[in-house]
Amino acid sequence: MPLPVPEHSPDLRLADGRSATVVGEHTWIWTDRSAWAEQSKRVAAGSVWAEVTAIPVRLSFDTAVSIPVSCPGPGTAYDRRYGLHAASPDCDIVFITSSYGQPGDQVNATYRITWRVTWVGSTGTAPASGTLPTMTSQATTTLAVAEAQALIH
Question: What top-level branch of life does the organism fall under (predicted)?
Answer without folding.
Answer: Bacteria
